[in-house]
Amino acid sequence: MEKLKETLRLMAGKNINKIIISKPIQKSSLYKKIVVVKKKDYFQAAKYTEKQVFHENLGEEALLDFLFSTVCNEFLQVNAWDREKEHILLLSKKGKITYKTKKAAGEVCSFDAHNRRKNYLLTEGQRIPPLEDMGIFTKEGKVAAPMYDKFRQINRFIEIIDDAVRDDPKEEIHIVDFGCGKSYLTFVIYYYFTEILHKKVRMLGLDLKEDVIEKCRRAADKYGYEDLRFETGDIKGFQPPFDVDMVVTLHACDTATDYALFHAVQWKAKMIFSVPCCQHELNRQMRTEDLSLFTRYGIVKERMAALSTDAIRANLLEYCGYKTQLLEFIDFAHTPKNILIRAVRKPVVPAAVKQRYLSEVEQVRTQFQFEPTFYRLLSEAGRII
Fold this sequence. Notes:
single chain, alpha+beta, Rossmann fold, 2 domains, 7-stranded antiparallel sheet, 12 helices, 16 strands
């Protein structure tokens, strides 16, 4: 235990600005991970349970004791970042300690709303051609003053992906982006995997508009992104040229999102990232006698239908074997659409757990007379029993 405390003391003395404590030893552990962030003159710890997060403020002198008492016999991994390096502490269940450092993937950006420093995966000073063409970066690699909000939003999106793929040992990843549109984010995702994670990527963007796809092809050639391809096609009948690890779908309108999720499930994709758009389907179907309060007022009905759409999608993904989260996410176009679906495939899901998720969907379907497209597609494919 003394060696563990000494190693943590070494890490804590490196002007650390962020710490992630992960991999609980026991599956029954209350906290699944703990994130400690440096504030102006103290640290704030965010302790994540399965469904909640609890915060605790720590003085600098209390950080080491907090780390030791938290990690000891509870967690197997600690990652910490200073301005230049990532510090990694690994513990085996038998007590073996491994400590190593590497160059940090993202440096500390010098700007935020209150002029405090913050870690970003995409930082000023990097040469990121798609961000230059978006007008977010100047030719000198600085963030253009009017574009800081969009710069933060794109970093937030990449952070959501990074949180899911950080520990994936696979050296090559295959990605499909449905409804890629102008593909700015497609290019940024490709950059993140190839230039920050240094993984080999095969990525394909799909859209219905030939003129848009042609512009994307020219941009990929311009950036030298050799393993990023674009094709014209419909989500409904698309067949990928490789085994798919990740499906991305941003603003696929209405039921196009359902087709994208369905294909991702059928391909057994490891990860799904979806920002739904224009959830009209259930709004048209919504009928109920017992809960007419929710259908009487147009704006309430619209929002209820939209939230129900994504809740049903999330439950069906859980039923299909994915750990699913609905995350608050401010859309790049500043629209009211602010939910991102993140789903990561789990190796095993008990039958009773799957049935509970499906039962909840069935109850809502019965109550409001819903016939969601994602549910229908899974049923027709024999996925719902």
